[in-house]
Amino acid sequence: MKTLSENRAFGGVQGVYSHASTACGCDMTFGLFLPEEAEREPVPVVWYLSGLTCTHENAMVKAGAQKWAATEGVALVFPDTSPRGEGVANDAAYDLGQGAGFYVNATEKPWAPHFRMWDYVTEELPRLLFSAFPVDEARQAITGHSMGGHGALTIAMSFPGRFRSVSAFAPIANPTASDWGRKQFAAYLGKDEAKWAAHDATLLMKKRGFDGPILIDQGASDQFLDLLKPEALAEAMMARRQNGAFRMQKGYDHSYFFVSTFMEDHIGFHASALYA
Amino acid sequence: MKTLSENRAFGGVQGVYSHASTACGCDMTFGLFLPEEAEREPVPVVWYLSGLTCTHENAMVKAGAQKWAATEGVALVFPDTSPRGEGVANDAAYDLGQGAGFYVNATEKPWAPHFRMWDYVTEELPRLLFSAFPVDEARQAITGHSMGGHGALTIAMSFPGRFRSVSAFAPIANPTASDWGRKQFAAYLGKDEAKWAAHDATLLMKKRGFDGPILIDQGASDQFLDLLKPEALAEAMMARRQNGAFRMQKGYDHSYFFVSTFMEDHIGFHASALYA
């Protein structure tokens, strides 16, 4: 593992690190914010999964999360959104290939050799994180934005007991019924839609739900609402009697201005679960 | 109008008043809490509509709302849930007749002569309230519990511009699809289901929504969830991109213990709109 940068921030340290990833078959970069408390003891961690076109860096510099993580004494980890590099397959579209891993393990050509973001985020990066940093594996929470909200919700529901809480900002809520999902699942997972269901938050909510609280914020002026399909997930949450809240925020769009506005609520929400 | 009682409470006055109602053709009783500020100037008002079997008194003594209304400087009005008295039709069931007005104007026998709770709550009682008490007609909000949540939501959406905010505790959210609704609408409004639609919060949300914020709390352990149908309203709210939040509260049931737990949030929510 290489340290690319470390900066003092809000009394803690914002680091950026790279490592050779077995899951993705390339070097991967991630950001990690450790609050001051981590100098003395392992701290709880909130995973932040980013959206389409993002690297590890976008949320790290634009989401305004470190302030609240420092206040609450929690770490933040910012993984990249896909494998990258010259030897890695890509597509001219912004929503497929590099920057658009969709948090799945690709089984189809040309994506299968590198696009294994599910394994990377749920197995390889956690092993590295918990062995190399003062972060408490027993106290994890997860959030994300857009494609990253999709990742946070599907991962949280797929690993019962791992995460105490999950939240999302404008998640892709029902990708098997959206052009943000059908295109990518067909490319990465193949035409058999039965294999897509494990990566759809609405379908997972109907099937099993989440054993902890959920908080979802969605901007009512989001330019991608028709692709995100919040109504499908809201219906599934309430039909399941899922502990949680779904909030439609008037006037907010899909940007990091929206994310940063409600970040305090989300970090506070996770801290309540992590320090319960 | 007769003053039945007035008690000092949280620096203000909790009163109970009765008057001869033209809409209902009988005497009607209501509770009104005025905060201390009302001694000096008209204050905003939050309407609280109660649920099945309740009189004006239940929420007044069990919801714990006066404390927060005093803190925020808002009045609370607690109407009864139906006409009452020996000359008023009734039914042996708890969910029809006296204590179960459902906030509609009955057109069918034997209910039509007295069961006009829609007119009572939206016309007659407001006229009395705004002429007799220091309450500001330009700043109204509305909430309610169960059948009263149904009333609050349907009334708020039916009078655009009248209420700045609406909230509900465990509302009957889709009565045209529930035994809490179909039975009563058939009795009060007749068999023509087209006439029921104006009294269904989910259908009104699909049709027109609400021009302000909405807050809904629902207990996940509510014993009446199958009758309340929160998932239908949550889906309709998010499909419409309605400004608002739908919260599923783990472990809470249908009682006033649930209502009183979240009353602070609701009064604070309304005060934000009323003092904006």
Key traits:
homodimer, 276 residues, alpha/beta, nine-stranded mixed β-sheet, 9 helices, 9 strands, globular, S-formylglutathione hydrolase activity (chains A, B), carboxylic ester hydrolase activity (chains A, B), S-formylglutathione hydrolase (chains A, B), EC 3.1.2.12 (chains A, B)
Structure commentary:
The structure is a homodimer of 276-residue chains. Chain A is α/β, with parallel strands linked by helices. Chain A has helices at 57-62, 65-72, 117-132, 147-158, 179-189, 201-207, 225-228, 230-240, 256-274, and strands spanning 2-9, 12-21, 26-34, 43-49, 75-79, 135-144, 163-169, 214-219, 244-249. In chain A, a hairpin with a 2-residue loop joins strand 1 (2-9) and strand 2. The longest helix of chain A is centred in the last third of the chain and has 19 residues, at 256-274. The first copy, chain A, is globular, with a radius of gyration of 17 Å. The mean pLDDT of chain A is 97. The A-B interface holds A 213, 218, 220-221, 225, 230-239, 241-250 and B 213, 218, 220-221, 225, 230-239, 241-250. Strand 9 of chain A pairs antiparallel with strand 9 (244-249) of chain B.
SSE blueprint:
The structure is a homodimer of 276-residue chains.
Chain A: E1 2-9, E2 12-21, E3 26-34, E4 43-49, H1 57-62, H2 65-72, E5 75-79, H3 117-132, E6 135-144, H4 147-158, E7 163-169, H5 179-189, H6 201-207, E8 214-219, H7 225-228, H8 230-240, E9 244-249, H9 256-274
Parallel strand pairs in A: 4-5, 4-6, 6-7, 7-8, 8-9
Antiparallel strand pairs in A: 1-2, 2-3, 3-5
